[in-house]
């Protein structure tokens, strides 16, 4: 029997509260589906700083490199706001992403029918929405050189300064994230729409050519289309259901993934994954985490919505372990509790519902799993 190794890093604030519900879900799959997980737990962020004086211990980093997948809750909190930049809780998360070389950031935007009225768009535009944005995460304009602010004495330049950032992509960087997108598409709707600005940027021309090359040579079975990113932004709010997987660079992906997220409602519902190169066992390096932060305003009150973290684990089942059936089961269980009207505080809209705490939501999801 395959045993899947997981490193759980609950982190700070509501991180441990939502992760406790994921632990229950893991236990359910072990007891009811015969799956075997080797779970270890460690500290990240402020919790790691409190114990080790830094936001990620070297031993924890080594563990993260060795496991099949890392699940992270959230990091940060007001207690750590005055810390030196290099010691801040966020640095723990950034170190994980950097040293694991997680170049593909996955942000699904999925609209559960029961929450369609939460969207800022009309129900008929978003109902049934299920798209996945794959954003390149480790290169592009946020990292390219040269960069900086310097003096510029061009005649007529009032103020005498210039700010520079460089959009730079190598073909290798484009190909590897394109492969991730095509692999993911094969596990979903088998369609990829790649977005850049090849009309005005050379890096966009290279992006388009390299994505097409990977498609033609390695994934001819996946349907590929290209779109200028500004049109992509319009299409996302006009008719988002036309997309399956959207592949885009770091900058456009930052903006488009946040816009797409809001098509579906609460921050407490949004999962994410960051994937790197395949390991020896063929699985990609992987870190799964909810999009939300540590929510200090509701910490310790049983108010946190555990669904973002639970759906992150569903992504782990699907994308790290190829357990698509189990991932579907878990997503269906979430859909069921929402259809039953169960609502953590963040999901309480004008139409009401049955208020539940963090752990009640987890219990009801287990019950919905058992009822399938
Ligand atoms: P946040 O995401 O923690 O909270 C924003 C708002 O959404 C708050 O009102 C919060 O109560 C609510 N919220 C968030 N997650 C929720 C959930 N699961 N259920 C119900 N309500 C939820 O962002 P904020 O307030 O800007 O940052 C708080 C701390 O978290 C800061 O220290 C920040 O640096 C850190 N942070 C960490 C992230 C991470 O670990 N990846 C991401 C974003 C922020
Ligand atoms: Mg952003």
From TrEMBL:
<keyword id="KW-0432">Leucine biosynthesis</keyword>
<keyword id="KW-0520">NAD</keyword>
<keyword id="KW-0100">Branched-chain amino acid biosynthesis</keyword>
<protein>
    <recommendedName>
        <fullName>3-isopropylmalate dehydrogenase</fullName>
        <ecNumber>1.1.1.85</ecNumber>
    </recommendedName>
</protein>
<feature type="binding site">
    <location>
        <position position="135"/>
    </location>
    <ligand>
        <name>substrate</name>
    </ligand>
</feature>
<dbReference type="GO" id="GO:0009098">
    <property type="term" value="P:L-leucine biosynthetic process"/>
</dbReference>
<dbReference type="InterPro" id="IPR004429">
    <property type="entry name" value="Isopropylmalate_DH"/>
</dbReference>
<dbReference type="Pfam" id="PF00180">
    <property type="entry name" value="Iso_dh"/>
</dbReference>
<dbReference type="GO" id="GO:0003862">
    <property type="term" value="F:3-isopropylmalate dehydrogenase activity"/>
</dbReference>
<feature type="site" description="Important for catalysis">
    <location>
        <position position="142"/>
    </location>
</feature>
<feature type="binding site">
    <location>
        <position position="254"/>
    </location>
    <ligand>
        <name>Mg(2+)</name>
    </ligand>
</feature>
<feature type="binding site">
    <location>
        <begin position="77"/>
        <end position="90"/>
    </location>
    <ligand>
        <name>NAD(+)</name>
    </ligand>
</feature>
<keyword id="KW-0460">Magnesium</keyword>
<comment type="subunit">
    <text>Homodimer.</text>
</comment>
<feature type="site" description="Important for catalysis">
    <location>
        <position position="197"/>
    </location>
</feature>
<feature type="binding site">
    <location>
        <position position="230"/>
    </location>
    <ligand>
        <name>substrate</name>
    </ligand>
</feature>
<feature type="binding site">
    <location>
        <position position="97"/>
    </location>
    <ligand>
        <name>substrate</name>
    </ligand>
</feature>
<keyword id="KW-0479">Metal-binding</keyword>
<keyword id="KW-0028">Amino-acid biosynthesis</keyword>
<feature type="binding site">
    <location>
        <position position="258"/>
    </location>
    <ligand>
        <name>Mg(2+)</name>
    </ligand>
</feature>
<dbReference type="InterPro" id="IPR019818">
    <property type="entry name" value="IsoCit/isopropylmalate_DH_CS"/>
</dbReference>
<feature type="binding site">
    <location>
        <position position="230"/>
    </location>
    <ligand>
        <name>Mg(2+)</name>
    </ligand>
</feature>
<comment type="pathway">
    <text>Amino-acid biosynthesis; L-leucine biosynthesis; L-leucine from 3-methyl-2-oxobutanoate: step 3/4.</text>
</comment>
<keyword id="KW-0963">Cytoplasm</keyword>
<dbReference type="InterPro" id="IPR024084">
    <property type="entry name" value="IsoPropMal-DH-like_dom"/>
</dbReference>
<dbReference type="GO" id="GO:0005829">
    <property type="term" value="C:cytosol"/>
</dbReference>
<feature type="binding site">
    <location>
        <position position="107"/>
    </location>
    <ligand>
        <name>substrate</name>
    </ligand>
</feature>
<feature type="domain" description="Isopropylmalate dehydrogenase-like">
    <location>
        <begin position="5"/>
        <end position="365"/>
    </location>
</feature>
<comment type="similarity">
    <text>Belongs to the isocitrate and isopropylmalate dehydrogenases family. LeuB type 1 subfamily.</text>
</comment>
<dbReference type="GO" id="GO:0051287">
    <property type="term" value="F:NAD binding"/>
</dbReference>
<keyword id="KW-0464">Manganese</keyword>
<comment type="function">
    <text>Catalyzes the oxidation of 3-carboxy-2-hydroxy-4-methylpentanoate (3-isopropylmalate) to 3-carboxy-4-methyl-2-oxopentanoate. The product decarboxylates to 4-methyl-2 oxopentanoate.</text>
</comment>
<feature type="binding site">
    <location>
        <begin position="293"/>
        <end position="305"/>
    </location>
    <ligand>
        <name>NAD(+)</name>
    </ligand>
</feature>
<keyword id="KW-0560">Oxidoreductase</keyword>
<dbReference type="GO" id="GO:0000287">
    <property type="term" value="F:magnesium ion binding"/>
</dbReference>
């Amino acid at each position: 029997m395959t045993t899947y190794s997981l490193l759980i890093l609950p982190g700070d604030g509501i991180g441990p509260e939502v992760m406790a519900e994921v632990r229950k879900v893991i236990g359910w799959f072990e007891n009811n589906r015969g799956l075997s997980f080797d779970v270890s737990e460690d500290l990240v962020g402020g919790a790691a700083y409190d114990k080790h004086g830094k936001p990620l211990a070297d031993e924890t980093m080594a563990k993260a490199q060795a496991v099949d997948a890392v699940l992270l809750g959230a990091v940060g909190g007001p207690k750590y706001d005055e810390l030196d930049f290099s010691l801040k809780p966020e640095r723990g998360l950034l170190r994980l992403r950097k040293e694991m070389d997680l170049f593909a950031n996955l942000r699904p935007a999925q609209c559960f029918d029961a929450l369609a009225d939460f969207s800022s768009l009309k129900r008929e535009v978003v109902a049934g929405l299920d798209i996945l944005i794959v954003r390149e995460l480790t290169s592009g304009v946020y990292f390219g050189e040269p960069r900086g602010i310097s003096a510029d004495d061009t005649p007529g330049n009032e103020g005498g300064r210039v700010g520079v950032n460089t959009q730079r992509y190598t073909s290798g960087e484009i190909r590897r994230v394109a492969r991730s997108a095509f692999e993911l598409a094969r596990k979903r709707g088998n369609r990829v729409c790649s977005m850049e600005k090849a009309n005005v940027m050379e890096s966009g021309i290279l992006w388009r050519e390299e994505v097409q090359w990977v498609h033609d040579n390695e994934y001819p079975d996946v349907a590929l289309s290209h779109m200028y990113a500004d049109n992509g932004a319009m299409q996302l709010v006009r008719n988002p259901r036309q997309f399956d997987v959207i592949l885009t660079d770091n900058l456009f992906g930052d903006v488009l993934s946040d816009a797409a997220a809001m098509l579906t409602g609460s921050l407490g519902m949004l999962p994410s994954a960051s994937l790197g190169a395949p390991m020896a066992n063929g699985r990609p390096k992987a870190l799964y985490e909810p999009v939300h932060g540590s929510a200090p305003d509701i910490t310790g009150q049983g108010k946190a919505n555990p669904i973002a973290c639970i759906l992150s684990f569903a992504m782990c089942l699907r994308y790290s372990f190829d357990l698509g059936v189990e991932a579907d089961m878990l997503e269906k269980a979430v859909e069921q509790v929402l259809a039953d009207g169960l609502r953590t505080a963040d999901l309480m809209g004008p139409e009401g519902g049955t208020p539940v705490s963090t752990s009640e939501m987890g219990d009801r999801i287990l019950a919905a799993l058992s009822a399938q």
